[in-house]
Specification:
Elements lengths: L22 H12 L3 H9 L3 H14 L2 H18 L4 H19 L5 H21 L3 H14 L4 H18 L15 H21 L4 H13 L5 H11 L3 H17 L3 H14 L5 H12 L3 H12 L9 H7 L3 H12 L3
Helix pairs in contact: 1-2, 1-3, 1-4, 2-4, 3-5, 4-5, 4-17, 5-6, 6-7, 6-8, 6-17, 7-8, 8-9, 8-10, 9-10, 10-11, 10-12, 11-12, 12-13, 13-14, 14-15
């Protein structure tokens, strides 16, 4: 799995260039992160012993500015996201520090309401970090904590549904492209679980009827379960999408629905729309090549397949990957932008 930034080294408990309470150095790393040098700052924080991190952050929450504290929150969060697959316990440590710092920042006089959008999005993103690493109990716990603070936050209900989806994939359906699970003894368990996920997305939509992510996930679940309501949800995701990632996936899923129903011209239209939104991703080229082959256009099918193979590697992953593992990448981008916004 390719995450946003790669930390060169994560060593916990080794010799560190910082003193036990190097608060100035700690806040300097936060400011470096806020200035846009995230990879460099996380690399350096990664080699601090946990005892030094704990000591410095404990002092920083009383001496640092709110801006510095938010940058520190994202410094820890970004580090955890980059390392959670290889070092889950160290990542959990940094996420716990991030939450402590965030609580201190939002507890400052006059800051609670101002920081509420950031805090809400942080809970949602951290849940997705745990989900993407298949640490589903930890993901569920952070969603629960978020909902205790923000019981009407639609994004957290989307996060809860996504946890269920990833649990189904982990336990029953290793490859979402195959529906053979419905011919196994696990069929009832899968259906019950996905109905539970759908219920979370419906709850999110009851709070925000234009939540594109909820429409997208609900459409995907209904597509997988051969529910005739899938298309209307995916159409709504296209209409309400605030970012290209959701729009791209909705067109891909609409193409898959049309292809399954043997509406090949409709499938081609949707896959072309996905390719227009995400021209650097191979998935639409593969899908279009398959459709052209089915339509008897062998030359066009070959041309599309070759075009897909010749694509230069993109800096960004295909959004399908994030959808599959449950990572809220747009949330990370939003949180980063907030702490790097000029004052």
């Amino acid at each position: 799995m390719i995450r946003i930034c790669a930390v060169a080294l994560l060593v916990v408990g080794v010799a560190s260039p910082c003193r036990a309470q190097d608060v100035a150095g700690y806040l300097a790393l936060a400011r470096e992160y806020a200035a846009g040098q995230g990879e460099e700052a996380t690399d350096r924080l990664a080699i601090w012993p946990q005892s030094a991190v704990s000591a410095a952050s404990a002092v920083a929450v009383t001496t640092g500015s709110v801006r510095d504290l938010l940058a520190a929150v994202m410094l820890h969060t970004d580090l955890a996201n980059a390392t959670i697959d290889a070092e889950p316990e160290a990542a959990r440590f940094h996420l716990n520090i991030a939450r402590t710092v965030l609580t201190a920042a939002s507890g400052r006089i006059g800051q609670r309401q101002r920081l509420e959008p950031f805090v809400r999005r942080w809970f949602r993103f951290v849940a997705s970090v745990y989900t993407s690493a298949e640490l589903l109990n930890a993901a569920a716990a952070i969603v629960h904590q978020g909902l205790e603070a923000f019981p009407t936050d639609p994004g957290l209900f989307v996060a809860r549904g996504t946890i269920i989806e990833v649990g189904v994939r982990k336990n029953f359906v290793p490859d979402w492209r195959r529906d053979t699970v419905f011919g196994t003894s696990h069929r009832d368990k899968v259906e019950d679980a996905l109905n539970g996920a759908a219920g979370q997305y419906v709850r999110a939509l009851s709070l925000d009827s234009h939540n594109a992510e909820a429409h997208l996930h609900l459409g995907w679940v209904r597509l997988f379960m051969a529910d005739g309501r899938a298309k209307s949800e995916l159409d709504a995701a296209v209409a309400d999408a605030q970012d290209d990632g959701v729009r791209y996936l909705a067109h891909l899923f609409l193409g898959g629905l049309a292809e399954r129903d043997n509406h090949l011209e409709d499938a081609r239209h949707e896959y072309e729309s996905a390719r227009m939104v995400g021209p650097d991703f191979q998935t639409p080229y593969v899908a279009l090549s398959r459709i052209e082959q089915a339509l008897g256009h062998e030359d066009r099918a070959r041309e599309l397949a070759l075009a897909g193979l010749r694509l230069e590697k993109s800096d960004a992953d295909d959004p399908w990957w994030d959808h599959r593992i449950g990572l809220d990448r747009q949330g990370l981008y939003w949180l980063r932008d907030e702490v790097r916004r000029p004052q």
